[in-house]
């Protein structure tokens, strides 16, 4: 058995509807189902989803406030007013700011840009920055990716004679700022049909409106922020990103080319994944550790050499950020461990704070804590000088951060965000109240099932249905991202033909799967440890994403494995190893690194130098100890010496009722020697030789000589002597130096089968033959039977 990491949630879809759409469009049923799952449910919408270009972009003036915003900016351009672009320090904010910098240059505006320092100023508009704008003669501020909550700051600017045009995409609060114009598709009165634009998407629409045509040259910037801010890649976002990725293959932006180079992204292979996991983190690193202006300079420079230098600096900052995050995660987990001890369980909402934590990376730390504990998580850095805490939160399915924070908004000095991610400022003295009230909300809206991570599955497939053509057709769904994730498929009842590790340190896993006559490789990165928990020939259910493996000119389907489930008990066949005891101990230690503990069934552990104090060891050497609690939870049992009988083995089954995986680690033959099944054909020649010999002693030299003459092992000869004694064929005289045997000259005629020793020999040879010479299938059937019956 092997439990999956998450709950698998299969998307239900009418097969009749799938077939109908497939026939209407000429697509495969698998792709038709993927489209239906994404809400693309008729021939026309399929055409738009798969093939729409920039001609499908909506009229920017459908955005409420856009006309007012454009008129005010045009007025400022005509009057040569000083304009400020006011952005945010994340990748969306940097992309938005950079996009408007290029736009203002094109419009020959009198402008500058301003992004607040994350640690010193925090998120959004602030009065100190507005004062600086006034000093510089600014009369118009255009915000990007921020401003929708800045009621007081907009009023302050207005009092100073500065107009503000807000372009944003965050959830609007109940009270809106009285700006010159508000442009946000999420405003309740905004008729714009697509609500999923990123901050940079709204800035792109502003550029479209000001130029009177689609600003194709700004698409790449719009795509980076859209992907980085995890916006749904549907509708206009899909068009923007798809067209931008084509342009990135031959980008004219020195900054984008330098980012791809430093991230080892081949321009022809750039996709939404490489933007999200390579380019965006480096852009974000500037705002997290230094100032986001570094990244804006990169995205707006026309100098290739300058771009290379800045990209290298961002790469350095990103590596520094990774080390910092690792340290903070360890500290956060230590703090959480104390809370778990206090509460007796993982809190329903995790709230952690520390004065030494860098607020630039707390969002990443929150994400990693969510990944490990699957609870809504708030990570806050404390400014001891002011008593204020700046925090970042990440959530799980079923817990809407923005909605939950709005319920307790009196706790915060400032907050904002989305369903899954948010930021906030709160007084240090209110941290305990924040935690308790968030847990109260969680008590009301979450149940136990919410705390088990869930993976959505698009379709169940059989290996024979997966071809290169199918996978190539599925690629029409790209670009992948939020709302349009890479399709996940579930394969039932595949058989593991082979497992092996890959990589220098064996950190990756490769499984060959077979089903009927079809076969396919499944690859799982950073899952090499699973090799010892997946037996050959076991039936598995696997979940993953389909891809094409290209190697040396060969192309074949493969599954990028994300999760695996085994519903049957497993047997791992490690027979015929040279040192079974040491192998068993090493295996137990390895398993103990990833599970609660393993049991080792061996009579010779002490010979291997294993001490009873080792936590993973539960063995015959300790059977007198009260270790029942441990035994009830053992999932792995390792057998390195054959139990003396079938009855003893049944006792083993009772001893470890929760066993899921059995590991049989045995040499080629028993250390005492091979034990064949007894037969008259084997015994009669030996009987004749012993009668000729007359008498003999149970000495090694004598037994060795008889063994060489008859072909019986010394172990078999000793058992045969007991059979002969049992049948009165020999007389046994016990002496201090050992037994002496003498053949009886006129023994009574009787059958060998009447001897209880002979019967025990027959049973024992059959028992040992199963362990040493049985096939893997026979071993699996016989040895797992006691558990499978229950």
From TrEMBL:
One of its GO terms (molecular function) is nucleic acid binding. Residues 457-563 form the RecJ OB domain. Residues 82-226 form the DDH domain. Residues 570-780 form the Single-stranded-DNA-specific exonuclease RecJ C-terminal domain. NCBIfam families: recJ. Residues 348-440 form the DHHA1 domain. Belongs to the RecJ family. Keywords: Coiled coil, Exonuclease, Hydrolase, Nuclease. The keyword Transmembrane helix does not apply. It comes from Paenibacillus aquistagni. GO terms for biological process: DNA recombination; DNA repair. Signal peptide: none annotated. Residues 307-334 form a coiled coil. This is Single-stranded-DNA-specific exonuclease RecJ. Gene3D superfamilies: 3.10.310.30, 3.90.1640.30. Transmembrane segments: none annotated.
């Amino acid at each position: 058995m092997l439990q999956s990491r998450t709950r698998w949630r299969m998307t239900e879809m009418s097969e009749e509807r799938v077939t109908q759409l497939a026939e209407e469009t000429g697509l495969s049923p698998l792709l038709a189902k993927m489209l239906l799952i994404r809400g693309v449910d008729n021939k026309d919408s399929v055409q738009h989803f798969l093939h729409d270009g920039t001609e499908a972009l909506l009229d920017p003036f459908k955005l409420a406030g856009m006309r007012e915003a454009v008129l005010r900016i045009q007025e400022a351009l005509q009057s040569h007013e000083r304009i400020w672009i006011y952005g945010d320090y994340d990748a969306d904010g940097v992309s938005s700011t950079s996009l408007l910098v290029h736009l203002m240059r094109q419009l020959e505006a009198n402008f500058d840009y301003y992004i607040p320092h994350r640690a010193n100023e925090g998120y959004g508009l602030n009065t100190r920055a507005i004062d600086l704008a006034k000093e510089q003669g600014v009369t118009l501020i255009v915000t990007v990716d921020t401003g929708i909550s800045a009621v007081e700051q907009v009023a302050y600017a207005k009092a100073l004679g500065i107009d503000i045009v807000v372009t944003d995409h965050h959830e609007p609060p109940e009270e809106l700022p009285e700006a010159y114009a508000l442009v946000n598709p999420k405003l309740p009165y905004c008729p714009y049909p697509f609500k999923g634009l990123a901050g940079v998407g709204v800035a792109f629409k502003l550029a479209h409106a000001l130029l009177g045509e689609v600003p194709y040259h700004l698409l790449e910037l719009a795509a980076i922020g859209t992907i980085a801010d995890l916006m749904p890649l549907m509708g206009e976002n899909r068009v923007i990103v798809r067209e931008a990725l084509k342009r990135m293959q031959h980008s004219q932006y020195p900054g984008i080319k330098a980012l791809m180079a430093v991230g080892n992204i081949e321009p022809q292979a750039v996709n939404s994944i490489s933007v999200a996991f390579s380019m965006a983190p480096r852009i974000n690193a500037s705002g997290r550790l230094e100032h986001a202006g570094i990244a804006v300079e990169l995205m707006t420079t026309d100098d290739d050499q300058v771009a290379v230098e800045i990209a290298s600096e961002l790469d350095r900052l990103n590596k520094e950020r990774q080390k910092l995050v690792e340290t903070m995660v360890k500290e956060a987990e230590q703090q959480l461990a104390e809370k778990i001890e206090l509460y007796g369980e993982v809190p329903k909402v995790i709230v952690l704070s520390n004065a030494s934590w860098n607020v630039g990376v707390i969002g990443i730390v929150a994400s990693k804590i969510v990944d490990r504990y699957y609870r809504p998580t708030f990570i806050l850095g404390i400014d001891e000088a002011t008593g204020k805490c700046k925090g970042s939160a990440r959530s799980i399915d079923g817990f809407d951060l923005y909605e939950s924070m709005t319920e307790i908004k009196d706790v915060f000095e400032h907050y904002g965000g989305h369903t899954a991610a948010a930021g906030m400022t709160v007084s240090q003295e209110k941290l305990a109240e924040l935690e308790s009230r968030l847990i109260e909300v969680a008590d009301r809206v979450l149940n136990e099932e919410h705390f088990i991570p869930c993976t959505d599955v698009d379709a169940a497939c059989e290996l024979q249905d997966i071809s290169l053509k199918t996978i190539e057709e599925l690629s029409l769904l790209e670009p992948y991202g939020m709302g349009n994730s890479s399709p996940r498929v579930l394969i039932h009842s595949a058989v593991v033909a082979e497992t092996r590790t890959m990589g220098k340190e064996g950190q990756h896993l490769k499984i060959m799967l077979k089903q009927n006559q079809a076969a396919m490789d499944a690859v799982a990165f950073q899952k090499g440890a699973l090799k010892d928990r997946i037996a050959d020939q076991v039936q598995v259910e696997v979940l993953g994403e389909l891809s094409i493996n290209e190697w040396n000119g060969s192309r074949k389907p493969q599954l990028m494995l994300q999760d695996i489930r085994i519903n049957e008990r497993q047997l791992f066949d490690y027979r015929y190893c040279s040192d079974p005891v040491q192998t068993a101990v090493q295996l137990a230690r390895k398993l103990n690194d990833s599970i609660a503990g393993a049991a080792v069934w061996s009579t010779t552990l002490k010979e291997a130098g294993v001490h009873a104090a080792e936590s993973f060891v539960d063995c015959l050497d300790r059977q007198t100890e009260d270790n029942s609690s441990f035994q009830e939870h053992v999932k792995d049992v390792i057998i390195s010496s054959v139990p003396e009988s079938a009855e003893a083995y049944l006792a083993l089954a009772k001893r470890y009722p929760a066993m899921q995986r059995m590991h049989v680690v045995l040499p080629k033959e028993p250390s005492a020697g091979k034990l064949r099944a007894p037969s008259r054909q084997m015994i009669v020649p030996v009987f004749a030789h012993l009668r000729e010999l007359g008498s003999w002693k149970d000495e090694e030299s004598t037994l060795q000589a008889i063994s060489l003459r008859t072909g019986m092992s010394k172990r078999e000869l000793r058992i045969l002597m007991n059979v002969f004694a049992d049948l009165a064929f020999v007389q046994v005289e016990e002496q201090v130096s050992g037994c002496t045997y003498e053949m009886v000259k006129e023994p009574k005629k009787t059958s060998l089968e009447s001897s209880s020793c002979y019967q025990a020999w027959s049973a024992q040879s059959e028992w040992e033959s199963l362990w040493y010479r049985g096939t893997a299938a026979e071993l699996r059937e016989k040895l797992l039977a006691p558990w499978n019956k229950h």
